[in-house]
Design goal:
The protein is mainly β. Helices cover about 5% and strands about 55% of the residues. The strands form three sheets. The protein has an eight-stranded antiparallel beta sheet, with no helix packed on it.
Length: about 180
């Protein structure tokens, strides 16, 4: 069936998000794959450029560490396209512009009775395109995940991110989202 766009939103920084719902088909170098779950997306024309990141660091960086907290995004969905939810800690990150890294990135998704609280530490800015998440208090030992993030604005006023977390022992349990 045809996918519909839903869960559309945006922020004052020019970050836009949504999700393709009801399944979709995609072509990856001639390999066609049918997917039954939702595909979350986030985009912006206001990305922080590498030159702007260098300028922030050259000017002494933003003083101390800079904290980023969830400000909106898609409703997480599990691998069957059913709504999950963000946990109390939602999505958080802290950047150190002098060190050129995310000191931490955290996401907490709850899918039915499974709490998937995951994170990463010391992620170099050059590795933010895709990084692995580790168990940071999951209710199951077999949680796995990955995320990507980019800075938004000339002075890195925000972060846009996508994430995917799941219970590897129960592949239908997990959550994907963007914001």
């Amino acid at each position: 069936g045809a996918a519909g766009i839903t869960d559309i939103g945006g922020s004052v920084l020019g970050v836009n998000w949504g999700r393709w719902a009801d399944g979709y088909t995609y072509n990856n170098n001639g390999n066609i794959t049918q997917n039954i779950s939702d595909m979350h997306y986030v985009y912006s024309e206001n990305l922080t450029t590498p030159a702007e990141l260098l300028q922030i660091a050259a000017l002494g960086g933003l003083v101390g560490n800079v904290d980023y907290n969830y400000a909106g995004g898609t409703t997480p969905t599990n691998m069957a396209g059913q709504a999950a939810q963000l946990g109390p800690t939602q999505i958080q990150a802290q950047a150190d512009f002098l060190a050129g890294q995310l000191n931490y990135y955290k996401v907490h998704v709850i899918d039915r009775a499974t709490s998937l609280k995951m994170g990463a530490t010391n992620v170099s800015f050059s590795d933010m395109r895709e990084f692995q998440l580790q168990n940071d208090g999951c209710s199951v030992a077999s949680c796995v995940g990955q995320a990507s993030a980019v800075f938004i604005g000339q002075k890195a006023e925000g972060i846009a991110t996508t994430y995917s977390v799941m219970d590897a022992a129960q592949p239908g349990v997990g959550g994907n989202g963007a914001g």
